[in-house]
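Loading example: each entry is read as two labelled lines plus one structure line.
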Amino acid sequence: MEDDVGAQHTPAEVDATFRTLRRVAVGYFVVFLLAVAAFPVLSLTLDWWSQARLAGGMSPGFLVAAFGLYLFFAVLGIAAARLSSAVEHRMLDGTRDDGPAIGPDPTGEHP
Amino acid sequence: MRGGSRPLAGVLVVAWGAVYLVTQVLVTPALGVLPTLAAGLVVSTVVVLGYPSALRGPRSGSLGGATARNRSRPPARRPRDPRGVRDGLTIAAAGRSMPLRNGLTPDAARRTAQLIRPLLGGDAIAITDTEQVLAFVGPGADHHHVGGTLQTRVSRLAIGKKRTVVVHGRDGIGCPEPDCPLRTAVVAPLAVADRVVGTLKVYRVHDEPAPRVLVDDMASMLSLHLELAEMDRERHLASDAKLDALRAQINPHFLFNILNTIASKSRTDPEESRQLLLRLSDFFRYAVRQDGHFAEFSQEYFFVRTYVSLEQARFGDRLRVRYDLDPQVLTARVPVLVIQPIVENAVKHGIADSVTGGTVHLRARVDPLTRTTSIRVSDDGVGMAPEMLDRLLAGERPGTAGPQHSGVGLWNISQRLDALFGDRYSFDVASTPGKGTTVDLQIPLR
């Protein structure tokens, strides 16, 4: 029978991981919200945002809406996914097979 | 600049450059000065707050990589002479970069001999311990072999008399090689405290020996470095011994109780007893195999939850635990075997004596601005009387009725933190009888 002790966690461990991941998610969501909310705020308060001309005669607002936001969403999503995976790995995976310091006995003995 | 400050400064410069380009150079018309400054400030704030925050991605890919980082860092480079004097040109400069600071080894002796040879006016320099030649630089190196036994009488004389010996003429040197070009020698003993551990020998191939005072002074300086090296070694040994003591002091009663629990569950719930055995093996494997003084927090967290899950098998619903961890703290490096003894203390002195049990709360945070890792272990158990707390912190075993053990743990932790961080940490224990105990630990972020 395979030793799958890593898949069995106590409720406290799962709860701790959930709360840490929730903190990550809330943090990223706040950043997402601020960035998206900044767009209409800038459009309403700063004429330069829609009247100035950048590359190709496009305004800063148009450029951000056309390209910048998508780039921002991609970066934010990748960063959130990487951090969440790392957090889950560190908080739930055992270190049983992860390294020589606490990994399996080099002689081959394994519980 | 330390740690991540340099990349942060670089990112800020790039951010301001980008703001300037986008608002002033690439756009028509340019944005006004105040909105530009406001945009720069917003970007800077986002960078400064976001860079060290929980939003940053993982610093490494896997725990395996983290283990590899356990290797010791190379020693910090010594600062360059502010006067621009090249190392090796003056005795002061040589003293600051003396390789013997790491101990009397052949490599250190060779580099030292090469370094001080131009300073002492000798043609050949040898450094020995009390048995063999560790380094020989200059004429005569063909038969004064490194690693060979002491050939010259004068070395044994200097070691025996514990004072500097000056020899005129090659007969006085006592080299058995007839073609040895060395004519005069000044041999000064190298001593650690009152114990002679070697010699510094300055040879010349003509009849005027090297200045004795100069050789004496250099030997004194080398002896001082050797003494400092010895103190360093003893300090490290003491630190290692404290860690070994903590590792070895895993309470036999804990093991006894857990084995009893497993034995009782083996009939009613064989699967759970199997899981407990695996957790027990994880627990001991971690405790035994930690060879460095620091580990990633996530590994210590693994050790803690392994311990707690074992205790929960014994205490059942009486022992509850709540972890509250900052994502960034998972990759911080903390002293090994520090958090678990604190949690064990909370279980043993807070929860075990409470009829209704209680909750142990482990909270860990990183403050990137002050570069501090904060760890708090609190419980709502029975608490401790001030005198018992004092005894625990002093390393005494609380009470004489039973062979309790964890007092050694808290005292040991305090001593090890002293050795690792000096006065750059805080370790506070507060306890109120009937309300619980709180242990606050703040250490530099690594």
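Residues 249 and 405 of chain B are 8 Å apart (CA to CA).
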